[in-house]
């Protein structure tokens, strides 16, 4: 019997990309789903494709603790509890620290970092009661800095340590906590970034060896589900990403930074120029989805 069969999983960012793929795979293995996202149309489409009575969709903004609490409460009321949390919702913002839109920087931190806290906080009582599992979606960026996207690096390094601290706090309850670290995955986030910011596309294509390769969403989803079933501390996708957990400290030495600086000045200058020309530091779709709170 599959280890997730009969379990209830709350997944944020469940309307596309990794969240959708993980939802599809867990559902196929017999799990029940509570999916949240800002994109109501795509969320409805995912539910229609999955079908059945084992899917609850809730339009909710991870930046809003009350909204996430309401989503978790709906899941508990309908399905009896929550066993698995996948705190997956995330966005990307481009531009140097000097030139990035400050509001976009704040929005990213609110989504990528506070959103993880809100998601976990809302579902944690039920997860504790059911001795469940929490997966915090971090990134390769937690292991290695990304010039031109300091906001993303900040958020992903932060949520990795959030997961580490949470693991210590809930271990005595029988709850396991993991963090996921991916390099370039062929998600809408990466697709939109490459399409609208040529500096990002050029930077990816210039990376040596596997660093410049993009992994399919399907392969990433398979790795996530395997890790969820094994209640893993870390999920690295592709597997070589795990090497950088150990190489990370070297990259912040003068020697390591010397290697990383090659070509950075030109790429960041190009990125800043594109940000200025577009008048925004995020993709058009992300801007549209988040504009309501940005304008408040």
Span of the ends, CA to CA: 49 Å
Number of strands: 7
Order of helices and strands: EHEHEHEHEHEHHHEHHHH
Instruction: Enter the CATH topology name.
Output: Rossmann fold
Low-confidence stretches: none
Percent strand equals 5-15%
What does this structure look like?
The chain is an alpha/beta fold. The chain has one domain: 3-Layer(aba) Sandwich (Rossmann fold), CATH 3.40.50.720. It is built from 12 helices and 7 strands. Strands 3-2-1-4-5-6-7 form a 7-stranded parallel beta sheet, sandwiched between helices. Strand 2 (32-37), helix 2 and strand 3 form a beta-alpha-beta unit. The longest helix has 28 residues, at 102-129. It is globular, with a radius of gyration of 19 Å. The model has no long low-confidence stretch (mean pLDDT 94).
SSE map:
Elements: E1 8-12, H1 17-28, E2 32-37, H2 40-50, E3 55-59, H3 65-79, E4 84-87, H4 102-129, E5 133-137, H5 150-170, E6 176-182, H6 188-196, H7 198-206, H8 217-229, E7 234-237, H9 243-251, H10 254-260, H11 264-278, H12 284-294
Parallel strand pairs: 1-2, 1-4, 2-3, 4-5, 5-6, 6-7
Helix pairs in contact: 1-8, 3-4, 4-5, 6-7, 7-11
